[in-house]
Structure formats: C-alpha cells, structure tokens
Amino acid sequence: MRMPRRGLVIQARTRWLLVGLALLFSLVLLMYLLECAPQTDSNGSLPGVIGESMGKEYYQALLQEQEEHYQNRATSLKRQIAQLKQELQEMSDKLKSLQEKKSPKINGMNYQGTKEQTSNDLLEFLHSQIDKAEVSVGAKLPSEYGVIPFESFTSMKVFQLEMGLTRHPEEKPVRKDKRDELVEVIEAGLEVINNPDEEDGQDEDDGVGDRQLYSENDFIEGYYRTERDKGTQYELFYKKMDGMEYRHVTLFRPFGPLMKVKSETVDISRSIINIIVPLAGRTEAFAQFMQNFRDVCIHQDKRVHLTVVYFGQDGLLEVKSILESVARETDFHNYTLVSLNEEFNRGRGLDMGARAWEKGEVLMFFCDVDIYFTAEFLNSCRLNAEPGKKVFYPVVFSLYNPAIVYANQDIPPPVEQQLVHKKDSGFWRDFGFGMTCQYRTDFLTVGKMTLKKK
Fold first, then answer.
1. Rg (CA), the chain
2. 273-395+430-446, what's its fold?
3. Which of 212, 309, 395, 421 has a beta carbon 3.0–4.6 Å from 349's, enabling a disulfide?
4. Which is nearest to 312 in space by CA: 286, 288, 343, 282?
5. Extents of the domains making up the chain
6. Nearest to 271, CA basis, from 378, 191, 347
7. Which one, of 137, 114, 106, 258, lies nearest residue 191 by Cα?
8. Beta strands in 181-295 (DSSP E)
9. What does the pLDDT look like over 282-331, one tens digit per residue?
C-alpha cells in the first residue's frame, strides 16, 4: 500500500517543479525583453506631447551627430587631396628639372619658342577684340535702343542704370569684385599717366622730376560700359586741383588683362558751352532755372553762353525782365533771346537756337527749363563731346512729384534737398535722348532736330 503513495508524491513534486521552471523561464524572458527593448519604442509608446518631443530631440541629436561625422570626414578628405596635389606638384617639378638637365638647350629653345608663340597669339587676339569693339571707331546701329549706355563712377560712388536687386540708382560698390575692378582701373590709369610710352605724345626730354605725378586723389570721374561679346571700355579723367588740364585715359578689358587704348591731355579752359533752352510760358520755372544758372554758370563756371528760344507772346516780357535783371545784378551779357511767334516745338527751338550762333564752332548743350545741373556736369559735357567723333547724351535722373514723395510733410523741402539719387525719389530716364552735348558743326551736318515731338 505504500508504493502507490510514494509514486503519487513523486508525480506531484515533478509537476510543481515543471511549473516552477516555466515561471522562472517566463521571468527571465520578461527581464530580457525589458533590458533589450529599444529606447524609442518606450518613448513612442508614451501618449501626448511629451513622447513626441522626446522623439524629436533624439532624432535631432542623431542628425547632428551624423552631420558632424560627415563634416569631419569631408575635412579629412580635403586635407588629403591638398597633400596629394602638393606631392604631385613636387613630382612634376622634379621631372621637369630632370628633363631640363638632360637636354637644356633643346628643351629651353622649344619652351621659349612655345611661350613666345602663345604670348603673341594672346596679344593678337586681345588687339582684335579692341578692333571689333566700339572704342576707336563707331558702329552703325538700327536705332537708339541699340546704344550700350555708359555708367559713371567716382572714387566713392557708382551711378548705375541696371540697379539690380538693391534698386539703388546711386550706391557705394557693395560687391567686392566691383570694388576691386574699379580700384584696379583707377590705378591702371595712373600707371599710364605717370609712366607714359613714346606713343602717348610726351616729350622724351621731360624727366620724371619735371613731370607732374598723379595720385588717386586726382581722379575726377570715370565711365564704363560692357559689350558682352568683346569686353569692357573705361573712360577715365584726372585733374590736379589747381590746374585746368584734364588727363583722359581710355582702357579696355577684352575679358582679359587691361590694355591701354590711348592717353591724352585735354585742355578745356577755353571751351565755351552754348546752352540752348526752348521755352513757352512757364515763367516761374524759368526764374528758378535762372537762379541755378546764376550760381553754376555765372559765379562758378564762367564759360557759357545762354540762348533762350521763346515761342509766343504770352510771358515774353516777363522772360526779358528776368534776363535783364540777372544781367544787371551779375554783369552777365552772354545771352541771346530768340522770339518766335508760333506754336511751341522743341525740335524747332533747338534748331533755331543752334543757327542763331554766329561765331563759328561751339559746343552746345540742349537743355530744358526744368533741368538742374552742376558745374561738374558742364566739365563732363566738355570732356565727352569731340567734334566729328563723339556726341554726349547724359542720362537724366527724373524726380517724382514732390507732392507725393513728401506727402507726409506740411511743405516739400527746398529743391536742393530734393536732389538726391534714391529709389523713392526718382529714376534714371535712360530711354530719353532729349539732353545732349554736341558741337555745332556736327549738328548742322546731321541736319536738324525732328519736328514731330513738341
């Protein structure tokens, strides 16, 4: 009877042992899952914003770590590339020196011949670019819209037609390449003036001590334009502060080194400008024009003649009175008043004003009554017009209506304070060709102004 009892006890113990082993295995498996589970799974299982923010921070840290790893790798590769380039250059130099040692005469002659041939070919190409460009000779254009305009600059500012993203008609050169370009051009012009060649017309007997040396402070103004398939042309003007002679240097950059085109001395001390103004009515504007004429032409420049071509009878006496008043107050009598009893026509007025001059050749400036100019502009007019070769069409900066520009003020500021080159105050009227400086013989050779525009 005891044996069956002992078998039951053994079976019961075995059963409990198996159950304990199963529980122990389950516990070990649970602990393993808890220890080896990814951190993101637990974070992702958290509800709400906390889980999401912790996930973002983890991925941002992971991305930053990867980015730093790639940057370090890129830096290492760049350093290795630089070292390889240096080693390659050293090996190339060694190989070249060995070849020269083996056959110095033959290799030297071939290398020198090749170098000279390359240099001659380059110079020939650059000179051909100058010959193709509109520098020394003019080009026939289909209309005025085919003209490539010049942009002007001083040592501090650039007056630009293509204003780009800034939309500033006048600005200091912001881009480094533009600043470096203009500085290089000014210095190249000084090099041409201070170290002239025989072809520049300087006397060979004149020593360096007798010749005036120019510096950056003597640079007055410059003009440049780019023909996109040929190069950039520069017209530079220099003048000593106590002198009246200007040095004019023309440079051309044929998408390569700067090349001198010409260097000459320009004397404008005896160049008279006949300012021709067609007018009808607008006596208040004419009185304001004469105030500026008094300040600029009579008191400063002193080398001008004024020709007023007046249309009609209404306001004629007032215009005469203004001219006579200025003549009495300033002792200025270099003016002519041409009266035409007909309808206003600007082209006819300019034509009559040009033909009213009876003293031979003269430089003319066709001007409107609402134009404000300075003494510096009159010198620019003299420097950029040449009889039989060049006429000068200045690009006018047109001001917006002051009543709109200064609408937040009780009254607009004085005219002198309105004359600023800003995108909110006006724009470059690069499509207008009404203002021009040209010599009388050139104008008469062409014929006359068009009478269609009134």
1. 41
2. Spore Coat Polysaccharide Biosynthesis Protein SpsA; Chain A (3.90.550)
3. 309
4. 343
5. 147-197+213-267, 273-395+430-446
6. 378
7. 258
8. 219-227, 231-239, 245-253, 259-267, 273-279
9. 999 999 999 999 999 999 999 999 999 999 999 999 999 999 999 999 99
